[in-house]
Amino acid sequence: MQITNVRAHHIRIPYDAGVASFKQGASAISALEIVLVEVSTDAGLTGWGDAFSYVCPRSSATAIDEMIAPQARGLEVPDAIDIPAFMDRIQRNLHLFGRYGITMFAISALDIALWDLAARAQGVPLHRLLGTRKRARIPAYASLLRIGTPDLVASECETALRRGYTAIKLHETTSPAVFAARRAIGDGIPLMVDMNCPMTSAEAIAFAHECKAAAPMFLEEPVWPPEDFAALAETRTKGGLDIAAGENACTINQFRQMMDAGAVGYAQPSVTKVGGITEYLKVVDLADERGVRLAPHSPYFGPGLLATLQLLSLRDDKTFVEFFYMNRAACLWRGAIDVGADGAVAVPEGPGLGYEPDRAVMERYRV
User: Fold this and answer.
1) How far is CA 218 from the centre of its chain?
2) How far apart are CA 222 and CA 183, in angstroms?
3) 289, 210, 208: which is closest to 242 by C-alpha?
4) CATH node for 3-123
5) What is the DSSP code (8-state) at residue 213?
6) C-alpha to C-alpha distance for 288 and 204, rounded to whole angstroms
7) What are the boundaries of each domain within the chain?
8) Architecture of domain 129-364
9) pTM of structure
10) How far apart are CA 337 and CA 333, in angstroms?
11) Distance CA 54, CA 352 (A)
């Protein structure tokens, strides 16, 4: 079975996050930018991947077209056992263009699509190709966008609990917002705080002490720059709260450096950024070996979310799936991956990643 084409689809789906906002740079983001990658074969099977693309969809799509497609067209589709070697070759061929960021986002998309194809070729869901499924439903935490005002933070947390969520993650950088959330949800609900790399280690240590009584499960990426693992380790040691990081790390190598430094208690590989399923699995093995817990990054709604669900189904450690807390104008998967009344998401049972994207939705929201 040969790869006949690799195509990037830029899809933009509007969303409503209520009182929350999401900013990168100066502009608020008002739509989900998704770069789907379609890998076609001469056998009629299609695999789907996902390149991370919040504010860089055109760049991610161009990387697919200019770097990934020429590498992949005409090649034999590797089976599951050979995908790691195949992807190692792709990484080596493209290393000149970076081992981080856009290049790795594009590589991740190809890798996800190849695993999708490998499982589809055998007619089984991805989790069965990789191991033994231990969970049919994955508990989701509500990943709230940044709000700022403590009263509004509390209100959104209460609404999320009413919708069935059993854990909350904030994107806040002030202790009043953290305490407002804790008062709203009570003591028994896990609370996480994602900070998006704003502080020095000294500032982050002070913030950790301020928030300690609110008992967050972890502070996520409190320090700038995110690759300063020594500063993260210092914050973890002196701040008295656990640290999560890794959504901005690419390949097993950065995660090894992170863990060698003692920087994290929670590793956060993002399947659409780290190098795909292949690298994600390496990170999981390393984390398990080092006694580091898993909290994967997955606030997206393309094939990357399906892949994350498949991968989390292999674990029985109650690991949550991250789920963006928002109302979307449409769903590529016909609502099949929505959070249920029990606060969990069903693991897809179809071949490969489990579902085919809705082409009508793709066409309606195509850029």
Assistant:
1) 17
2) 22
3) 208
4) 3.30.390.10
5) G
6) 27
7) 3-123, 129-364
8) Alpha-Beta Barrel (3.20)
9) 0.96
10) 7
11) 25
